[in-house]
Amino acid sequence: MTSKEISELFAEAIVTIVLLILLNIAIIVIFSSIVNHFPSLNDAIFETRNSFVRNFDSTIFLSGRNLVIPLFIILDTLILYWRLIRRYRQMQLRHIITELHYIASGNYDHRIPFELSGDLSRIVTSINGLVDSTVAAIEEERRIEQSKDELITNVSHDIRTPLTSIIGYLGLIEDRQYRSEEDLLKYTHTAYVKAKQMTSLVEDLFEYTKVRQPGVPIHTMNFDMVQLLEQLAIEFELEASRKGIDIQVVTSAPQLLMDGDTDKLVRVFNNLITNALKYGKGATLILIEIEKVGTEAIIRVKNNGKMIPKHSLDSLFNRFYRVEESRSQETGGTGLGLAISQSIIALHGGYIYAQSNQDWTSFIIHLPLSHVKRTKKSENS
């Protein structure tokens, strides 16, 4: 409390005491006047007083002042205490409002520091909680805006590079700046390759935004995960053999039935195997391990190639992130594959993470065997 507030409370006490004294005197005068005008009432009071004297065997009741004055003092004290407490509460509320205005002026890192009791304590706690949630919402909004800006920047960069090449080579053809048909075919082939890169980026971007939408449909069916992954391994055998890599599927059981959207899950495993073939430098083996643990299927796609650095491992599932920092279209994809995979796995109620050491680089997927439709709350999380 400030000195001004203490003075205010003191003045309140003085004014209240004066008013109570005047009120007490007025009550006594009015009561005496009534008693004097009604003799029967005076007799009744006299008899009542004598009855108290006989019953309690005390002469304290012979004088009315022995009862009236203590009664007035008790009532006046209660009234004085009530008025001072009320004024003190008003001062506390005034402080809370001042603090709230200070926070509302933009000082969102400030919190009301008072430790109060009763309803005011709950009010302070609610205000601080509201400020916390508001700040969190503002920070989330800023993060979303920053994410959108990064998305636009990355898409613009990745589209501009092949588009510049396409325009350049088509410009050479338009101006007939080629010496032979071989040059013409070279220019058109380069423009075609760059156009396919742009198509791949647009398709990945569309897929990424689609799987990130709340309420995206999951067309589940019961299927055999072992059979699905063995079929995928066969499809990649030729490409892997050209790179001197062997693909093996290792499973603890010949069959693992589960629910899921096979089209979306094939996209996930295609991406993981493709990444292992493209980025697993020095790898000679890709292992796909399938295991059932409780109500989950755990799938590991691992290769014995070059270890992924720790700082890159933490960012693998960020959209547009690539381990190679040059962001070259020749050595890297769109940088959306793992982000899409993570979203698809999340749609199935599972999760994915990566581990890497000198021996193995592994992508581990946990998927529930039975698909449970997500609630709206989980979709928004």
Structure explained in plain terms:
The strands form two sheets. The chain has a five-stranded mixed β-sheet, with helices on one face. Helices cover 62% and strands 12% of the residues. The chain has 381 residues and is an alpha+beta fold. The two termini are 45 Å apart. It has helices spanning 3-37, 39-56, 65-104, 119-174, 181-212, 225-242, 262-279, 310-313, 337-347, 376-380; strands at 221-224, 246-251, 257-260, 285-293, 296-303, 351-356, 361-368. The model is unreliable at 373-381 (pLDDT under 50). The chain contains ten helices and seven strands. It folds into three domains: 3-107, no CATH class; 153-212, Helix Hairpins, CATH 1.10.287; 221-380, Histidine kinase-like ATPase, C-terminal domain (Heat Shock Protein 90, 2-Layer Sandwich), CATH 3.30.565.10. The chain is elongated, with a radius of gyration of 41 Å. Residues 87-139 form the HAMP domain. It catalyses: ATP + protein L-histidine = ADP + protein N-phospho-L-histidine. InterPro entries: HAMP_dom, HATPase_C_sf, HATPase_dom, His_kinase_dom, HisK_dim/P_dom, HisK_dim/P_sf, HssS/ArlS-like, Sig_transdc_His_kin-like_C. The chain crosses the membrane at residues 9-34, 67-85. Its EC number is 2.7.13.3.
